[in-house]
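call fold target=DNA-binding MurR/RpiR family transcriptional regulator
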Amino acid sequence: MAAILRALQQELNNLPSQERRIAEVIMQSPSDIPGWTISHLAEQSGTSAATVTRFCKSFHFKGFPDFKMKLAAELSHASDETAYQDIVAGNSLSKIVEAIEANHLASISDTTRLLDLGRLEQTVQLLCQARRVDLYGVATSSIVTQDFYQKLVRIGKSCTAFSDSHMQITSASSLAEGDVAMAVSYSGETPETIDALHCAKQAGASTISLTSYGSNKLATVSDIPLFTSSLEEGMRRGDMASRIALLHVVDILFTGMVSADFDRFIPRLEQSYHNVQSYRVQHNGGA
């Protein structure tokens, strides 16, 4: 199922009654929606154009045209998609290798189709210009923030990754205008991470969230919400494919930063590489 339709299904019971009717109409005939006007969808759902627009924005689209375009892109690839494969008893290693490869490739592909280039561009600019960057994430998400932290340090960015909830709040309280706080939570509902990003926003920092696609609290708190693919419910080891999706976005952001400010960041990247290599030769004989 397309990530957009999956998100609608998951949020259906939480939507206001009018928006729920819109979601139900879309889910009944998803392939027809790209050809509809906003007035036609409003008529079919017994709502108004304003309600359709509000519905689209509640799922972080710019409006109905943006929603139609992204839904059409997902549906066009639907026939090529392979369903995520869960862990089952007694699988041979060869089947496990194939399943993990398929899950990771699907996660990256689904995420790529959900990316908003405008938001990515804004994020890259903010990170390039930031005086200081705070990264917040707990549990599996902290692995992702640590990865981004190591990348940003290599290009000379003043940056720290926090996984402890108390330190997240402490650091967020000291941020100011010109600083950036980025929070990672696949569910988008991790209380500690939400509190930290909210605190950073109150302190005057620009805020970025990275979550799975759908309506969630962390995305609502942030100035710029970024999304990855959402996995089918019930996966026993969804954290593997979700981690790959989150790291995929982090790699895009880092590469975008270096490319956007090449003359500033490349010398730093090369210098850090040479220093590490020299250290290895000196202390480990090149090992």
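return ok
The chain has a mean pLDDT of 89. The first strand starts at residue 133 and ends at 136.
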